[in-house]
Amino acid sequence: MSFTKAQYEDILARLSELSDPKYKAFNESLIPGTATAYGVRVPALRAIAREVIKSDPEGFLAQSVPGSYEEIMLRGMVIAGMKLPIAGKIPLIEGFLPLIDNWAVCDTFCGEIKLRSPGDKALMWRFILPLFEDPREFYARFAIVMFLGHFVEPGYISQGLGCIGALTQEQYYVRMAAAWAVSVCYVKFPAETLPLIQGRTLPKFTQNKSIQKIRESYRVPKEDKEMLTQYRL
Fold first, then answer.
1. Among positive and negative, which fits the CA dihedral 124, 114, 77, 32?
2. pLDDT at 145
3. Residues 135, 100 share a domain
4. Fewest CB atoms within 10 Å of the CB: 155, 178, 187, 207?
């Protein structure tokens, strides 16, 4: 049986029941400019998404209305978790990108996507490569966060760092993601990442924030932290 409008309305009723005004206010304080309709915690959204995925995810997507933060988040979780080959899922991911308008939806969506084979990774990498150059803030952030969550490994690290180094976008959430990515890369691959920092070609904000984040890591030797200070801009 196809997912019905009444079933979707039932989900909205559940979101209302699960709403937490204090969490709503807290969450909105972390996501400037975003008003959450309900204030539902992520684990509860994941539980609903799992139920939808087991029943009729395609029908849900047909009925889904991106009318609130939680509805957008839930739609992303369903897309990410659907039992589809990655080649079939990428068009759905591409269709979801215009709905991303804050870092929380972006980063949660990236984390929900699972790449289970080298073939999956290769297809996703080809998809995100052009997005590093996209002028839209959360398209570019999606590419960066996907890189740092799924591709900081030998086969992709060099090309990924090259993409980070070539970023020209000036939006805050792109540059914050870039600094986060550089710090993760340095922790895992210091030899490959250090030349990017030494080159001082990153924007001043990204360069200095990357160094700050690396120095905050417990997995970086003290001597490295001291050495990196000379590359601040």
1. negative
2. 98
3. no
4. 155
Relative orientation angle of helices 5-18 and 42-55, to the nearest 10 degrees: 160
pLDDT tens profile 178-187? 999 999 999 9
pTM of the full predicted structure?
0.94
Q: Nearest CA to 128 among 111, 145, 106?
A: 145
Domain count, the chain: 2
Write out the residue range of the structural domain in which residue 86 sits. Answer: 1-114
Where helices occur in 56-117 by DSSP H, the ranges are 57-63, 69-81, 86-96, 103-112
Q: Which stretches in the chain have pLDDT values below 50? A: none
User: Do 126 and 26 share a domain, yes or no?
Assistant: no
Tell whether 87 and 151 lie within a shared domain: no
Amino acid code (one letter) for 19: S
Q: How many CB atoms lie within 10 A of CB 170?
A: 11
Identify whether the C-beta of residue 182 lies closer than 8 Å to the C-beta of residue 189: no
Q: Where are the beta strands (DSSP E) in 96-160?
A: none
Which residues, in sequence order, are CB contacts of 217 under 8 Å at separation 6+?
183, 187
pLDDT one-digit tens code per residue, 52-71: 999 999 999 999 988 889 99
Are residues 171 and 104 located together in one domain of the fold? no
201 shares a domain with 167: yes
Q: Which of 51, 84, 114 is the last residue of a domain?
A: 114
Count of residues in the chain: 233
CB 49 within 8 A of CB 61: no
Give the residue from 103, 109, 91 showing the smallest Cα distance to 150.
Answer: 109
Residues 107 and 157 in one domain: no
Q: Report how far residue 112's alpha carbon sits from residue 89's, in angstroms, rounded to the nearest whole number.
A: 13
